[in-house]
Amino acid sequence: MDLVRRIDRAAGEFLLFALTPPRLATARERVQEIADATMARLRPLDLDGLILYDIDDEAARNPAQRPFPFSPTLDPANYLADNFTSWQTPVIVYRAVGKYAPSELRTWLAAQDPARVMTVLVGASSSKIDTMTSLADAQALRRDVNPGLPLGGVAIPERHSRRDDEHLRLLAKQDAGCRFFVTQVVYDVNAAKNLVSDYHYECVARGRTPVPVVFTFSVCGSLKTLDFLQWLGVDVPRWMENDLKHAADTLEASYQLALAAATELMAYCRGLGVPFGINVESVSIRREEIEASVRLAEQLRTEIKG
Amino acid sequence: MDLVRRIDRAAGEFLLFALTPPRLATARERVQEIADATMARLRPLDLDGLILYDIDDEAARNPAQRPFPFSPTLDPANYLADNFTSWQTPVIVYRAVGKYAPSELRTWLAAQDPARVMTVLVGASSSKIDTMTSLADAQALRRDVNPGLPLGGVAIPERHSRRDDEHLRLLAKQDAGCRFFVTQVVYDVNAAKNLVSDYHYECVARGRTPVPVVFTFSVCGSLKTLDFLQWLGVDVPRWMENDLKHAADTLEASYQLALAAATELMAYCRGLGVPFGINVESVSIRREEIEASVRLAEQLRTEIKG
């Protein structure tokens, strides 16, 4: 079943792969080369869909210094339109809505083909940021100009660990039109299980149907990447952090940890009956990390029933 | 290999079963009947050892009302001496040291046969309690009067979740003579992994050999037992609490959760190379809960390599 129909029917299981567009400063011909190489690498994976992230500085999120300097990237909407024309599956385009004027978002939303594009609208990472469009306004724009465009939202298990109300936020986002959710990178499986569990039982209590929750996994090839994930707000359980810090091969250790975590979550969701997807994210631009991400998606493809 | 030699060599893997002695008010003949029935039930399990708990009121631990009223139980030292004479394996007798005068502890410690008895000395559950003997004094008494008597200590993953220093407490207890540790009931596997991981890497950093960590599991046949566990300070992850509350059969659900948790921890400890034991505790006096505990021990026996 095609991803659009799965989302429409709130049905799992499916596999996505998430990319960050190249840096804004990349030469135009080089951008297409990167896109072509990426598509060639991903085609054998039999993905159900692709995610293109919309990167924001997020400096306001965390007063600590960003482990990697922020480098603006191409607009994922343009990257898709200009460089991924030959890609076959639906593509989920993220929109960090605060970066765009309402008119700009409206034009983009209106122009998208619901059979090929979905969008995840993301609010600001901190209330301290000046935003051009709020999440609620962006959600309303989609309803106005292209209600058939499948909408997703972000789900943050870490926020559930702190406030115990992320499942209620998910249901509120569902009321605002969200038909699926995507987590940030999951290292803390327990936090993800807590969120899914509360979401499931709240759906049961309200007589609502749960929509697919897409869990994101990635490999981590260096301790600096680990620092960066933590800076971004990803909770890494102490034992995983220890294992990664002491591993002879950090990349391989993180691959095994991600595989085990994904497998555990998949079994848990199946047991509960919550539809789910798996998203493998390529965090780094280092060749061996990209290859390990592809290997992770390849392995998870064999475990996904769908 | 016999449990005494395993502990002496800091070697896993082994299986224990933990009992609470009958209530103090039990008629004398009835006590022996209970002990005989218990031994008959446990003999087929091929246990490496038995644990006898020393129950304390612990009212000072938690201002909330105790879900079950406190009912004093027989002294485990007496229960062992009077009623378990025909039991074959070594027995680990807990001593809630604050309940006893130093002279009383000294006499008991001096009289124990290190080939048959071990002890776990437990300090007060709250600093607000008046104690007759402190943990440090009790440890010193053992060193003085029976240094060959194998000593264990308690390990509390939940405390590690709050303070991040339980691994240092374990090493300090090791310095005070502890040759093994026993956790309270584990529901939060992640917390237990965090503690074992920090303990392992701290041992490596200091060139110390880890001693066996014994993880305790139990079944939970009712939501009142679950309340009681939480009152006692056991962290139950939200998803487990949800699953237990919504299970058609709480006891069977808790059996499956305990089995999965134990299996996960065993695999994790093997990967790290930390020696471990498994302890199955029978919390309740309800027949079906006791039988499920025995079934859990039976199943875990097949998974323990030792």
UniProtKB/TrEMBL annotation, chains A, B:
UniProt GO MF annotations: methylenetetrahydrofolate reductase [NAD(P)H] activity
Xref: InterPro entries: FAD-linked_oxidoreductase-like, Mehydrof_redctse-like
Top-level taxonomic group: Bacteria
Reported cofactor(s): FAD
Pfam assignment, any one: MTHFR
Entry keywords, A to Z: FAD, Flavoprotein, Oxidoreductase
Pathway linked to the protein: One-carbon metabolism; tetrahydrofolate interconversion
One GO BP annotation of this record: methionine metabolic process
Family the UniProt entry places it in: Belongs to the methylenetetrahydrofolate reductase family.
Protein name in UniProt: Methylenetetrahydrofolate reductase
Organism encoding this protein: Amycolatopsis japonica
Higher taxonomy: Bacteria, Bacillati, Actinomycetota, Actinomycetes, Pseudonocardiales
